[in-house]
Structure formats: structure tokens, C-alpha cells
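Item description
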Amino acid sequence: METTVMPNPREDDKMIEAAYGELLEGYLRSNHRKKVEIIERAFKFAREAHRGVRRRSGEPYIMHPIAVARIVSQEIGLGSTSICAALLHDVVEDTEYTVEDIEQNFGAKIAQLVEGLTKISGGIFGDKASVQAENFRKLLLTMSEDIRVVLIKMADRLHNMRTLGSMAPNKRYKIAGETLYIYAPLAHRLGLFAIKTELEDLSFKHEHPDIYDEIERKIRQTQERRTMVYSDFSLPIKEKLDSLGIKYEAKARLKSIYSIYKKMEAKHLPFEEVYDLYAMRIVFDCEDQSMEKSICWNIYSAITDLYQLHPGRTRDWIVTPKANGYQALHLTVMGPDGNWIEVQIRSRRMDEIAEKGFAAHWKYKIGEGDEESELNAWLKTIKDILDNPEPSAIDFLSTLKLNLFASEIVVFTPAGELVTLPSGATVLDLAFELHSELGLHCIAAKVNHKLMPLHCELKSGDQVEILTSKNQVPQAEWESFLVTAKARTRLRKGLRAMRQPLIAQGREMLARWLEENDIPDTNLVITKLQGLCHVGNRDDLCMQLASEEIVLGDFLLKPLRKAAALPVQSSGLFSKIVAIGKKVTATVTPSSKEKELPAPEVKPVNTKQIYRLCTTPDGSNFRFAECCSPIPGDDVMGFVADDGMVEIHALDCPRAQVLKAGFGSSIVATEWATDGDIRFLAHVRVEGIDRHGILQDITLLISTHMGIDMRKLTIEAKAEVFEADLWVRVCDADVVNDLCRRIKAIDGVTSSTRIV
């Protein structure tokens, strides 16, 4: 029997007052002017507006605005205006109060922030792809008006992630997916390092709880040994800095769980072989900002006197800060245990900016506001993209993401102007960065006085002179070697302008041909025609018609008339997939507009039939995605495709990341329920030191000792090292993991990893 716990108003009031007290206490400890009265009024207003409303977790709703306001104040470092806006951020969206009510009670500035937050209240993403992209445009456009809107929204998302456990699994996947795909990179770009790290870890925890718990457990188990190594390493450094009279704080910064996982995946390493689990951070006090650089290099000199320096891993972000304002001096030295250890050297000012981002810049503002110049330059780039958005929402989000999360290089023009670009940027990227016309007419460049082609990849410190010609016209293939979102957007705009006359001519030809043959110009007909002509969109179809690359003939009439006669049916009817015992069933929920249509018959699918039904999908309502080929034991999710079929993706598949971010309402929770009779193909890579008979040992283990069928094997040896790729048929991920472990135990094998 289920019982419902009745709310206790007295306990609720005590909890609310305690949370508000902590918010106020933290604010009073800050350096901001103490405007307690307006915060008190905002709290009482929000509390009354949300009275009687509860969150899904069961707690009073007002606890959420208080928590957001506390993050805004204590973790981002904003003042009373932002605290009030955070307390009131859901009032207009969720209650009968209006923006005018907020302005009347709290003034124009707070009302403006609340209105900005209300515009994007559904989160960056809504239910439809076009809405998602439009909401994201609104979010970024508000940044140029008042950056605090986005900072408060970031605090709102952080608290939602901290309390995500009460949501249904498919909602968790959607929210975690969009957080990892957009919010974490945006936090990184705004310099909110602490928030970015926590968002990544929380997303990872909800998508892969078992892997997260395992890494967390191993971190705890190795803590004592790690502490001893750090102590041996740091003690001589501390003694040296003490003798120099430097006031500082030294601590070990542990790598985040998500960063450890990404390194394990990228390098195909077990946890035990990830040696750079921590870095040493030295934060020194310096009242005179002009002395920061010399103190950093004094500390650098003291450390390199004690330990061997890794020459290729010194990073100076003091003279040339990152675009998000980050400043520090990084060096890597050999520790007492024989492993490389990174040391980060920062002033107290640099450390606060690194943790709290642009909010902290305002506290240290000097001169003409140099600290904000990088942000304004980035916002100008983003607005350039927003003014010319991609037709596809997912393309739009992906284009933006290129600018959100990229390592950077710095190059110089012949006049000595410094230009920051993403790592991997080319000559053509720089040309578009400087001006659209330069990019569209660029023919080559002089890089360090040597003639180089458009696709030449630039490096930090390069001096680049762009060469142009009036006769040059943009080419579609240029996009393959462009890295920056700005360059891609401007190239596509230039190509569209060039193609427009041809497209218009092709549209007339198409409309005339359809009319002559009594075929209606509907989406179904045009989609069918695009498929028959192998083109991706209507503009490409029209352009190829005008250039006579495609000719409309009588052979097209029958399939197009058939398409025109099809009834219009909505896709995406499956509302969820759930595992019930040993069967996976799908339930169908038509919308109100679809009730007159008969619901499609959906048969329960016994999991013994999964592999067979996926190769011959008649009667099945799901299929496995080819991009990641998941197998039982992998963390997976379902995506309802346009044809109503549910695609099964691994949760960390790159395509799945895009789907979670862009099509959250089409994500469904899935569970494996197999009895081990079905076999799935898995790819394993083996590397090691070559010796006579090693291949025989590997194949003997697989086929004879483990009874696993091999489907393909390739092996290549160079000098004394070999690399082998083998494809095996297994029933689940545990078998693959066991296989990798046993192969690695063979003499000469250095690594054995499943490739997904």
C-alpha cells in the first residue's frame, strides 16, 4: 500500500527560513553594498507568489529560487540586483504576476532581468527543433544586453542538475544531454570553471551512474597514496616559497570524475593507468597587479630549480589570457614517483576570475575595462551567427558549439594586430574573421612571409597576410577546412547569395512542370522528388534543375503521384518504451489532432528476437543505431525517429549527445532484457610488443578457451610493435570486458580495449 506524506506547514516554514538565512548570511560576507531591504522584499514577494506550490521532489517551490539566488551570490559573486532577479525568476512564468508588477515593486533593472529570464523560461530547448534553436538565439542575444541574465540562467540550470534525481529517466537523459552539449561549454566560455566542472560531473552521473560510482570509489581507495605522493612533492616547494617570503596558498586540485572518464575513453586506459589525477595549484597574494607577472615567474624558477621541467608543456596565459579571461602560468615537472605533475600558478585575482568568470572581472575593473573587451569580441562573433542562423536547428546548435568549446591560438596581422582563433584554424578562417569580403575573395596567404594555401593550418605566433583577388568566388568545398563558426556562417551566406538567381530559376521550372502534370506542390511530393534525385533540400534541387544537372522526366510521374495520394500521418507516435519482465513493449499515445487516425498495431517484442528483428525489422518497433552499435550492458537510450521507429543509441554516442540536446521530447528511456541467446558484434583493439606466436596465443584464448566466435581480424606490425583489430560475437558488454582483461594478461600485450 502506498502512503502519502502530508505537508507540515511548520516544518516547511523552518526549512524556508533557514535556507533564506544562509543566503542572506553569505551576501553579508561579500564585498557588495549591503542592500538587504530590497532582497527581503523580493524574498517575501516570491514566497507569497509560489505559496502552496511544490517541486517534484516534494519540497516547497520557493526553495528553488532561494537556492538559485544563493548560487548567484556565493558561487558566481553577483550582487543584490541579481539576487532579487534570481528570487523572482519564475514568478512571471508560473504565477499571475506580470513584468509590470515586478517593475512597479522592484524597479526597471530587476524587471528587465526577470523578463529576460522569462523569455527563455522553457530552458534553452523546447519541444520542437526550431523552437530550441530560437530559444537559444534569445538566450545569447540577451547576453549583449545584460550578461547577468545568462549567469542567473546558469545558476538555475546548476540547481536543477543538483536536484535531477526526482525526474523520470527520459527527462533526466534530455536535461543531462543538453547540459553537457550546451550549458557546460557555455559556462566554460564565460569562465565559470567551477560551474562547468560540476555540470559535467552531474550530467555524467545521471547518464552513467554505475561508471560514475566506480570511478568515485577508486578515487577514495587511492586517496591515501595520492596524499603521500603530493606531500612528498609539495613539501620542498613550500619550503622554497617560504624562504622567498611569498604569501601563498598551495593545494592539490583533483581531476573531475568526468575528465578522468574522458581521458580513460580517449586513451583507452584503465583507471589505474591515469597518472595525472591531480595538479598542484599555487595561489599567491599580491596587492599590486603590476607585480603579478614577476611573482609568477619567480615561483616558476623556484619549482624548476627543484624538479625536472617538461619543456613542451609550459603554458603562459598571463601575457595572452584565454578568451574567457583565464590567466595563469602552467608548468609540468617530474614528480618523486616518476610521473608528470602539472603546477598552476595564479594570483588571488586570477584565481577568483578563473572560478567565477566574468562576474569577477567587474570587481577588478581597471582602465578602460580591458577585462570585458574579450567578452564583447566573442559576443560580436556570436551575434554575427545569430543574424544568419542555419536552416536546421541541429546545424545551428553545432555551429555555435564550435565557438563555445575550443582551445585557442593567437596569430598576428602584418600591422601587429592580435587575433584569437580556435586551435586548428586555417588561413581562410582568419580571412573571414577579419572581414567577410576578405574571406569570399581570399586566394592564399603569406604565413611568416611564405606563400601558403587557404587550407594551411595556423599556429600560435604566426604572422599572416591575407591575399585576395576580385576574380575569386567562394567554393562549397571550402567548408571542409573551416573551423570557426563565424567563417562557416559567412561562407554559407556568400554561397546562398551566389546561388539565389539559379535557385529562383529552378523554382519556376519545378512549379511549371508540376502544374503541367497535375501534381500538387506538397511537402510529401517534394521530399519524394528529393529522394529520387538524391539531393538534400529543395534549394539544391532547384539549383541543379536550373543548371541542368537534373532533368524532370516522365519516369518521375508515377512515384510522385503515388506520394501525392498518401494520407498525411504524424510521425513520432511512440510515447515511451519500458522493459516489462522479459519483453520490451511500446505504448502509443496519439495527440488530439491525431485521434481520427487508427493507432498502428505495436506488438510486444520478446528480447530473444531482438537481433533477428533488427536485421529483418518487420513487426519490430526499434532498431540499433549503426553509429555506435550498442550491445547489452551498455548504457542506452531510445530516440523516436521520423518513421516512428525507436533508434537505440549508446548514451555517450556523439550522435546521441546531439539528439538529447536538440530533440529532448523524442528521447525515451530503455532497458536491456536479454537471456544471453542473442549475439552482437563487438570491436576490440589489441596493442603490444611483437613476438613469435603472440597472434596464436590471442586466437587460442578467444576461440578455444572462451568459446567466442571471431568474425574479422586485421593485424599490422611495425618494428617491434603490433596493433590488431578483431571483431567478435558476444552476448553482452561484460563478456567483452572479460575478454579484454584476459587478452591483456597475455605476455607482450600492453593494451586491450573495446572500440565503440
Notes: The mean pLDDT is 79. The longest helix spans residues 485-516. Residues 494-565 form one domain. DSSP finds 29 helices and 21 strands in the chain.
